[in-house]
């Protein structure tokens, strides 16, 4: 269908026509085979933003869909952009290619792949038995060939025992802990090697304790309940964006209003400006091989934690890339060394700083506008079992 027959084109046909027309600055093919294309993606808050050119394509789509009438409706470039973005995300004809996006340059753009009909077939869903819980295991960037798969756990492993626990002391505690961590009973109580931890220990507690702080003041403390982890973001994840954001069942933790705490007006205004850039937020989750994060928001995010490269200068989370914040094998090895008296207790606390460089030796963290402290509860529980943390 096309405009010549009087019928409207589908989005794919319309968009290809716009690319081929050459009317829109920055809208072009990404490859010679014309399977991918670039869309200019400059934020309206940029100083060099020009509505006539930077919003031209978004405006054209709004006009085409009858959502904007020149001279009658108020111009709203942000809404135009949102409409096109949502249409792209909902359409089975397009798929964003995050690794090709360039959003931190002077003329930022996104790249989309045109999906052909043969590529749209969805794999059959596997059946799930009543006594199983299916946990998605994300790709680990540090393990070559690690494929996305599903692990099956018995529901009982996620339920706390209802039996009244008796306090364990001395050798009985050691035996209990050794069995807990290795799956074996020590042959000899006097020489129970409680420091030898099974490297294949399976983690069944995927909860995270998340605390949000505004200038060092706590505004939220939550223990997550979803096996898919949690989003920390401004607002809410839009419906129908699973292809971009990942699992829909991840718990959503929305930033509270800065007015919820007593802060100077200038700080509140600065936080509101920052929150505008955190709409897509970050996704955190626990997998059998560690704790992971993926940044989706436009605003920059910095962090510190067990696997951070630097402790005395900032660590930046690159957008649309998965980072491992805690490595399970390293954590267990360090725990074993600690129990043998060969090293300190392993670190497990993770800190995120939104919009400001962190760690920053020149600025204490209580002066940072927005921070999050994240604790994987499996690590906390293990250390508490061994009396390595109060």
TrEMBL record:
Location of this chain's protein in the cell: Nucleus
Origin superkingdom: Eukaryota
Annotated SUPFAM superfamilies: SMAD/FHA domain, Winged helix' DNA-binding domain
Keywords tagged on the record: Activator, DNA-binding, Nucleus, Transcription, Transcription regulation
GO CC annotation, single: nucleus
Pfam families the UniProt entry points to: IRF (PF00605), IRF-3 (PF10401)
InterPro entries: Interferon_reg_fac_CS, Interferon_reg_fact_DNA-bd_dom, Interferon_reg_factor-3, SMAD-like_dom_sf, SMAD_FHA_dom_sf, WH-like_DNA-bd_sf, WH_DNA-bd_sf
SMART domains (alphabetical): IRF, IRF-3
Keyword Ribosomal protein (UniProt): no
A GO MF label: RNA polymerase II cis-regulatory region sequence-specific DNA binding
Annotated ranges, domain IRF tryptophan pentad repeat: 8-116
UniProt-listed GO biological process terms: immune system process; positive regulation of transcription by RNA polymerase II
PANTHER family on file: INTERFERON REGULATORY FACTOR, INTERFERON REGULATORY FACTOR 9
Name of the protein described by the UniProt record: Interferon regulatory factor 10
Organism: Labrus bergylta (ballan wrasse)
């Amino acid at each position: 269908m096309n405009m010549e027959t009087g019928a409207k084109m589908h989005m794919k046909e319309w968009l290809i026509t716009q690319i081929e027309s050459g009317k829109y600055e920055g809208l072009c093919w990404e490859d010679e085979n014309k399977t991918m294309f670039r869309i200019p993606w400059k934020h309206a808050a940029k100083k060099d933003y020009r509505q006539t050119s930077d919003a031209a394509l978004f405006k054209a789509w709004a006009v085409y869909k009858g959502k904007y009438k020149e001279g009658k409706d108020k111009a709203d470039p942000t809404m135009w952009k949102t409409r096109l973005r949502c249409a792209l995300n909902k359409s089975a004809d397009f798929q964003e290619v995050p690794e090709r996006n360039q959003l931190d340059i002077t003329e930022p753009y996104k790249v989309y792949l045109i999906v052909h009909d043969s590529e749209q077939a969805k794999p059959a869903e596997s059946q799930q038995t009543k006594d199983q819980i299916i946990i998605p295991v994300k790709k680990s960037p540090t393990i070559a060939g690690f494929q996305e798969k599903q692990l099956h756990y018995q529901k009982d492993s996620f339920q706390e025992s209802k039996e009244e626990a008796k306090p364990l002391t001395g050798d009985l505690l050691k035996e209990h802990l050794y069995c807990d961590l290795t799956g074996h009973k020590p042959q000899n109580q006097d020489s129970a090697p409680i420091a030898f931890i099974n490297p294949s220990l399976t983690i069944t507690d995927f909860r995270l304790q998340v605390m949000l702080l505004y200038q060092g003041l706590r505004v939220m403390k939550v223990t997550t309940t979803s096996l898919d982890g949690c989003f920390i973001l401004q607002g809410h994840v839009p419906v129908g964006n699973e292809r971009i954001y990942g699992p829909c069942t991840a718990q959503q933790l929305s930033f509270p209003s800065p007015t919820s705490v007593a802060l100077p007006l200038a700080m509140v205004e600065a936080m509101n400006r920052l929150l505008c850039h955190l709409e897509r937020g970050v996704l955190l989750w626990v997998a059998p091989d560690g704790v992971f994060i993926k940044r989706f928001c436009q605003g920059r995010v910095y962090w510190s934690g067990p696997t951070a490269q630097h402790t005395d200068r900032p660590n930046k989370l690159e957008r649309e890339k998965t980072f491992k914040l805690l490595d399970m094998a390293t954590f267990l090895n360090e725990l074993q060394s600690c129990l043998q008296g060969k090293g300190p207790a392993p670190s497990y606390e993770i800190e995120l700083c939104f919009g400001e460089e962190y760690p920053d030796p020149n600025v204490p963290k209580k002066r940072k506008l927005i921070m999050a402290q994240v604790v994987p509860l499996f690590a906390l529980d293990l250390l508490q079992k061994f009396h390595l943390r109060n």
